[in-house]
Structure formats: C-alpha cells, structure tokens
Design brief:
The structure holds two protein chains of two kinds. Chain A is built from twelve helices and no strands. Chain A is mainly alpha-helical. The termini of chain A are close together. By secondary structure, chain B is mainly alpha-helical. In chain B, α1 packs across α2, α1 crosses α12 and α3 runs antiparallel to α6. The chains are: A mainly alpha, B mainly alpha. Chains A and B meet through α1, α6, α7, α8 and α10 of A and α1, α3, α4, α9 and α11 of B.
C-alpha cells in the first residue's frame, strides 16, 4: 500500500508540473500585456518609467525564466498579486475554496445517496420497470446541460413555488446561519447533482448485475444465507468498486460543472472568481485559480484511487 | 429449472438488445429530422435571425411563433440558425479531436515504449485538468469565434480518442497478419495505415459518436457564460445566455426553454444512438 501511494504521488507531482506549464503558457498567450491595465496611455508614462516598471515586474526576462520565478513563488505559497483587485491571489482564493468544496462535496454525496440504492434495485431487478426507469433517468441525466437544469429548477422552485432563494450563500446582509446556508445550497447542489446521478446509477446497476452472477453469491445463497445478507454483505461491497472508479473519473467534470453552476447562482466560490478574473484579464488570478482547481482535482483522484485499493484487497502492491 | 432460468435470461437479453436498437433507430431518426429541418427551413421559410425589429421581448404569437428577444429578433429564426452553428461546431470539433487523437493513439499502441509513455501520460495530464477550466482560459486567450471554439474544443477532446484507439491497437499489433506484414519488410507507416487503422475503426466510431454530445455541451456551456459564440450570431448556448437574470427566467420562458430543449433532445438522441452502436460494435460488452 505504502509503495502504491508513493508511486501515485510521484505521477501526481509530474502531472502538477504539467498543469503549471499549461496554465502559465496559456496566461502568457493572452492578448494585452498586464502593463496595459496598470499604465493607461493618457497618464503619460515615459519610456524609462515603463522599462523600470517592466524590470520590477520581471517582464523583461525570457518567458522560461519568468515561469521558473513564478513556479518558485508558487511552491512557497506566493501566487502573486491580483492585477485587478490589488490583493494577494492566495488571499482572494482562500475565501473561495470553502464555498466551492461545500457545493461540490454535497453534490457528490447527494448523487451517491440517490444512485447507490437506485442502481442496486435496478440491478437486482434487472429488466424490470425499475430497471428501465433507471435507464431512462441515466439518458436524461447525461443529456441535460447543467445550466439548463439550473434554470428549470429556478423557474420551478423559486419563481413558481417561491420556496428557495437563487443567489448567494446567505440572505443579503445577514450574518448567516446553518439553516440559511442549507436553503441557499439546495438549488445549486441539485443542479450540479443531476448530471452525476445518471452515470452513477447506470454504473451501479451494471456492476450489481455482474456481481449477482458471480460464484461467491451463488455459494452464499446455497449456504442458505438470508437474501438481505447476501445482498448487503456479499454483493454490495464488490459492486461498489467500479462506482469508486467512476467517481474518480467524474471529479474533473464535477469541477467544471461547478464553475457554470456557481455563475448561475452567484455562489461565491472558485468558479465565479475565475470568470471575474477572465473578464479582467487578471493573469496571476487566472493562473492561480487554474492551478488550484486542477490540484484539488488531482488530490481528489489520488484519494479515490487509495480508497479503491483499500476496498479491494485483491489488488497487490506491485500494480 | 436451471434451463428455464437460462432461457428466460436469454429472452430478456434479446428483448433488451432489441430495445436498445430501437432506441438507436429512434435516436438516429430524431437527429436526421433535426438536421434536415436545420438545413431546409431557412431555404423554404423567410427567416430573419439578425433583423432587429421594434418588438422587444415580443410574446410568442402569430407573427413570431417563439416571440422575439431583447433586440426584437425572431427567436424561432435564431433557434434554427443557432442550431446550425451548434451542430456544426459539435461535428467539426470532434473531427479535430479525431484528427489528433487517432494518429497519437495508433502510434502509442503500435510503437509502445517511449512513444506510449509520452502520449499516454500526456493524455492523463490533459484529463486531470477540468476541461471546462481549460476551455474558458483558452477561449479568452484566442478571442471567441466559431473557428476558435472548434479549435479549443477539438484540441481538448483528443485524449478520449487516443485512449480508445490505443487500447485496441495494442491487441491488433500482436495479430498474425501484422506480424507477417512486418516479416516481409513492410514499412511501419504502411502497416499502421493499411493493417491497423481499418481494424481499429470501431472504437474510433464510438469515440466519434460520444464526442459529438460532449462538444455540443462544451460549446453551449461556453456560449452560455458569454465566452463562446458572440451576438449577433446565434447558438443554442448563447440564446440561453439571455436568461442570466431572474426577471427573464421568470417572465420570458420562450427565450430560454426552446434552446435548452433543443440541446437536450439532440444530446439524448445522439447518446441513444451511440450507446447501441457501442453494443453492436463490441459483442464482448454485456448488455447494459
């Protein structure tokens, strides 16, 4: 196990450097130099002063050198200063990670709570009405764009029924209680969950069907064990394994979906911060957010892989 | 008893397969009807997607069946022209992904070793960054237009092609006919083009079918955020962009429900088709 984790961490570190190169490369390709924002033409800055500012910001060096400077600072926790908000990027991001994690993790938890039982029933009663129902649900879930689902949810639950708020994490001007957060979380969480339910349910159903036809299930039944014991003790654990892989694969998608969902519901997370940064051509902020979101996805994938190993003792250390 | 159970499972399987193919047919028919409508309607109807009239936010009625938008443009006309752009971007972007991913997948699978290492690790890396995140950054770097969207979404989509092709090619390369071709001194490029590619076409087709909904979804999400197709051009995503304020969502549903439904219907049809296609092309996959 230890060896596996070490190996997994090493590949993650390589991937992390890849991400920093991609993020930095993209940001430097952006049209308009960061100086344009700082030095407006009408302020009449002389050529010497411009060169001086450039030198101070390190913009007169080759891009590769600039990258390594940026990377060195990054690894020391210094993400630079936001051009548009004149505050450290890290500080801007720090307040945003919490809301994004609350949204994404609650959505993932909700998706699993719905799909595991649904997929179990569909797989246990394969080819029944339940099963076809779950197939239809899977197709609908995969085909409905999350922003459209979000708008429909707003239309139904907020506009027509007036039950739930649509913007922010708390009511305007309130200090914020847990109940208030929960009410605000409902719609964005549902909108984000919708896309995962279909895939998870389908995966759960298929692995359920497969496990139920395995020899150990027949043995368990032949021993005269109660059906509930066979189902929950013998089948469930094995049927959950492929779902764990599926969850790992969908983390990146979930993070992408969160960006759009946050924007619709004005959720004060990383996604809204990123879109604001794009509008303001705020390079350090864009790079910081891209690197941070990708790193969180990377860490999420490692955690999922380790959980998989822990659940499945059949895989040995060499793999 | 046992026989019976087998038999009923066999029947259930057959029914299931038939259902799936029926789904595939339904999906295909819907997509074909949609494409025909998108191509033909502008020719036979007088559709003015860009003309600004004085009827701002006109409700659906006799003159404009789906009403008008904030600038008095005909929503139905925009839906048709927007559909052309959305489908076109979806199709072209997947072509681009295929053009990058298929050769890379074949090279990685055929040569193995160093090429395999580099290409597949690169694919891992691309897939570990949220696609949406990269799309947003790239689009804003390149300034949004139809061709940038095709480029960005296309470039981002190559790993799924490479992965599927790679998996297939590593088994093909061990086949006798490849070995004999190598034995008589056939060049590697010729082997890859004449012996490997034709036999690896089924995973490519599957990747292609599932790539289209992904690309359409990516385009519509970017346009919805205002980073994709720009007004006055229309796409289903940027029509939904009009609904970013709660006032529009609540009082002017004709602006956002039709394009949303169009995306939904297109994606579900292509997915139904793709699902059956995958089953049909790969007899090893179990029903389900």
């Amino acid at each position: 196990m230890g060896r596996y984790i070490l190996k997994r961490l090493l590949t993650a570190i390589v991937a992390f450097f890849g991400i920093t190169i991609i993020a930095y490369g993209l940001a430097t390709l952006m049209p308009g130099s960061p100086l344009d924002l700082l030095v407006q033409p009408e302020t009449g800055v002389s050529a010497e002063e411009l060169a001086e500012i450039k030198h101070r910001m390190g913009l007169d060096r080759p891009i590769i050198i600039q990258y390594f400077f940026w990377l060195k600072n990054l690894l020391q926790g210094n993400f630079g200063t936001s051009y548009s908000q004149h505050r450290p990027v890290l500080e801007l991001m720090a307040g945003r990670i919490g809301p994004t994690m609350i949204l994404s993790l609650s959505s993932m938890a909700l998706a699993l709570m719905i799909s595991i039982p649904l997929g179990m029933v569909a797989g246990y009663k394969a080819y029944s009405g339940w099963d076809y129902g779950s197939t239809i649900l899977a197709f609908v879930g995969q085909a409905a764009p999350n922003f459209f689902v979000a708008l429909l949810l707003i239309y139904i639950f907020s506009v027509k029924l007036g039950w739930l708020p649509v913007t922010g994490m708390y009511d305007a001007g309130s200090s914020g209680s847990f109940g208030e957060l929960m009410r605000h979380l409902c719609l964005p969480c549902l909108a984000l969950t919708f896309q995962s339910i279909g895939i998870y349910t389908r995966q759960m159903r298929n692995s359920m069907v497969e496990c139920l036809s395995d020899d150990y299930v027949r043995t368990a039944r032949a021993k005269g064990l109660k059906e509930s014991v066979v189902l929950f003790k013998h089948t469930l654990r094995n049927a959950l394994l492929p779902l764990v892989t599926q969850v790992g694969l969908s983390i990146a998608k979930l993070a992408g979906g969160a960006i759009v969902t946050e924007q619709i519901f004005s959720w004060p997370g990383m996604g809204t911060l990123m879109l604001k940064a794009i509008q303001g051509r705020d390079y350090p902020l864009i790079m910081g957010v891209t690197v941070l979101i990708s790193s969180i996805v990377l860490i999420g994938n490692i955690i999922v892989d380790i959980i998989y190993r822990m659940l499945d003792p059949r895989i040995d250390d060499k793999g | 008893m046992k026989m019976n159970k087998k038999k009923s499972a066999y029947f259930a399987d057959t029914i299931e397969r038939f259902m799936r193919h029926k789904l595939a047919v339904v999906g295909l028919i819907i997509v074909i009807i949609e494409i025909v409508l998108l191509v033909v309607l502008p020719l036979i109807m007088d559709l003015q997607p860009f003309t600004i009239t004085d009827q701002f936010y006109g409700t659906p009625g006799r003159e404009f069946i789906l009403g008008t938008d904030a600038n008095g443009r005909d929503v139905f006309a925009r839906l048709i022209y927007g559909g052309r752009i959305s489908l076109l971007i979806g199709f072209l972007a997947v072509l681009a992904s295929a053009a990058i991913g298929i050769p890379l997948g074949i090279i990685a699978g055929y040569y193995r070793g160093g090429a395999e290492m580099i290409i597949m690790r690169l694919a891992d890396m691309f897939q570990s960054i949220p696609q949406m995140c990269l799309n947003i950054v790239l689009v804003s770097v390149l300034s949004p237009s139809v061709s940038t969207l095709v480029f960005v979404i296309g470039v981002m989509g190559w790993p799924s092609f490479a992965r599927l092709l790679y998996a297939k090619v590593i088994s093909i390369r061990e086949k006798e006919y490849v070995e004999s071709a190598r034995a008589i001194g056939t060049k590697n490029t010729v082997i890859m083009l004449k012996y490997i590619l034709p036999n690896a076409i089924s995973p490519a087709l599957v990747a292609f079918t599932f790539g289209i909904p992904n690309a359409i979804l990516a385009e519509s999400a970017l346009s919805f955020l205002g980073l994709g197709i720009q007004i006055p051009l229309a796409s289903w995503g940027n029509m939904l962009n009009a609904a970013q304020s709660i006032a529009i969502v609540s009082t002017k549903p004709w602006l956002w429900i039709p394009p949303g439904l169009c995306i939904f219907v297109t994606l579900i049809s292509v997915n139904m088709f793709g699902d059956s296609l995958r089953d049909a092309l790969d007899p090893k996959t179990k029903v389900g």
